[in-house]
Amino acid sequence: MHWTLDLAVGLALVDFLSGLVHWAEDTFATETTPILGRWIVTPNVLHHADPVAFAAKSWIASSWDLVLASGLLLVLSVPLGLFGPGAVLLAVLGANANQLHKWCHVPRHAPRIVRGLWRIGLLQGPRHHARHHRGAQNQAYCVVTPFLNPLLDRLRFWRALERLTVPLFGAPRRTDLRTGADRSASD
Ligand SMILES: [Zn+2]
Ligand SMILES: [Zn+2]
After folding, report:
1. Whether the Cβ atoms of residue 100 and residue 66 lie closer than 8 Å to each other
2. Which residues contact 8 (CB under 8 A, 6 or more apart)?
3. Which of 77, 114, 120, 180 has CB atoms 3.0–4.6 Å from 83's, for a disulfide?
4. Which ligand is closest in space to the CA of residue 129?
5. 102 and 62 in contact (C-beta within 8 Å)?
6. What's the Cα-to-Cα distance from 89 to each of 4, 93, 167, rounded to whole Å?
7. Range with top average pLDDT, 36-50, 128-142, 163-177
């Protein structure tokens, strides 16, 4: 694959994965779910209630799990024959996805290069990410680029994924998705 195409695929894939993980975090599990509750759901609930609060966290506190996951994906890309500029870009941006998200909430902390990438539209900036925090907070889940969210939201991709998964797993955190059974069980 030509290296520019490889980079574009890596960029699209890391953006999509950021959205998929974010959507799953916002949709499933609750604060009382073992392990996931304290590790992921509680900070997530807090982020939706007070979006700027997590900006106080250090890079390592908000990135250690993404560093591990991205490192693992990079190592796996070698035997799979996928190692290249795209895999490296995916790992670097994936490891820093929470940090990029954090800068969207405190733009004054963002390095010059990140603000430059916002301006030229290669990285997702604060105004774009603000869409996620509007209304039911059920759109614009991807946090890396400004390219995939409009497409996925227009295709109603997350709603289609919910139609497939919510009947199986329930969606205790998404009040807009509660079924009658869920509501009577939790009210
Ligand atoms: Zn969210
Ligand atoms: Zn946010």
Report:
1. no
2. 86
3. 77
4. 2
5. yes
6. 11, 6, 36
7. 128-142
- C-beta of residue 118 within 8 angstroms of C-beta of residue 109: no
Cα(144)–Cα(89) distance, integer angstroms: 12
> Residue 30: phi, psi to the nearest 5?
-130, 180
Cα separations (Å) of 148 from 66, 120, 186?
Answer: 20, 16, 34
Ligand nearest to the CA of 139: 1
* Ligand 2 center–CA 58 separation, angstroms: 16
Q: How far apart are CA 100 and CA 98, in angstroms?
A: 5
Instruction: Give the residue extent of every domain in the chain.
Output: 3-186
Distance, in Å, from the CA atom of 94 to the CA atom of 187, rounded to the nearest integer, reads: 38
Instruction: Looking at the CA of 41, name the nearest ligand.
Output: 1
Nearest ligand to the C-alpha atom of residue 98: 2
Q: How far is the CA of 84 from the centre of ligand 1 (A)?
A: 31
Average pLDDT, whole number, for the chain?
Answer: 91
Distance 101 CA to ligand 2 centre (A): 6
The 10s digit of each residue's pLDDT in 63-106 is: 999 999 999 999 999 999 999 999 999 999 999 999 999 999 99
117: amino acid identity, one letter: L
| Distance in Å, CA 16 to ligand 2 centroid | 16
